[in-house]
Amino acid sequence: ASVADPSHVVVVLKQADILARAGAVQEARARLATVLQRCDAGPCRADLVPSIRTTLAWVILLDPDAGAADLQSAKQLLQVALSSGSASLDLVERANIWTNLAYAQARCGEPFEHALLTARQLLDGLPLEALARAREVRSWTDLVEGLAELIAGRDARALVACSQASRRDSPQLEAWAAGCRARAWTNQGAWDK
Question: Which of 45, 67, 184, 189 could be a cystine partner for 155, CB 3.0 to 4.6 Å?
């Protein structure tokens, strides 16, 4: 299949998601990077390119061993997706990208508050029909705030934010929130929580 074939890109995006969830982050990154490189070199459906960039950035952020250069790359991918793909993104997608950017900034040791505030403002202004999709992204903003507070060593604040992030209908988010709460409790010396 040609990289310009939208179905090929969609298949790679789905494969990368499955691989990343299974823990094969490097394989997911390689597939996404290859598709993005081909799209940058030739014709590719413009509305799919931001999805490739944001998915690649998210896969990088999923890697707990990602180094500084990788985290900077993820941050750059998200910034490019926001600046060049904004017209094809709805408000929930844009809020999600801003949330991921906040997480990338926090992992890079940079201020993250503006990106998180932007994500929350986008979510607050949504029409009623988009609220169901927005709830999970809003929970991710709480989680990212908690993770950023953990990185900064503010465990009590992290515990509050990570507790707000809990969502029973999203197993991935629930697992991350539980891990965040556990790290905050452990850092505070509460081994029995």
Answer: 184
Scanning the structure block, which residue is given the tokens 């029909």?
129
Q: Which of 42, 25, 189, 176 is nearest to 99 (CA)?
A: 176
Give 42-106 as a DSSP string. Answer: S---TTTHHHHHHHHHHHHHH-TT--HHHHHHHHHHHHHHHHHSGGG--HHHHHHHHHHHHHHHH
Lowest mean pLDDT among 25-34, 57-66, 89-98, 121-130: 121-130
pTM: 0.86
Q: Indicate the DSSP class of residue 23.
A: T
Instruction: Give which of 156, 158, 135 is closest to 146, Cα–Cα.
Output: 158
- Residue whose entry in the numeric block shows the structure tokens 């939208």: 6
CA distance 158 to 164: 10
Integer-rounded Cα Rg, in Å, for the chain is 17
Q: Is 160 exposed, middle or buried (0-12, 13-18, 19+ CB in 10 A)?
A: middle
**Cα–Cα distances in angstroms (integers) from residue 183 to residues 32, 150, 154, 173, 191, in the given order:** 31, 8, 11, 15, 10
C-beta neighbour count of 46 within 10 angstroms: 12
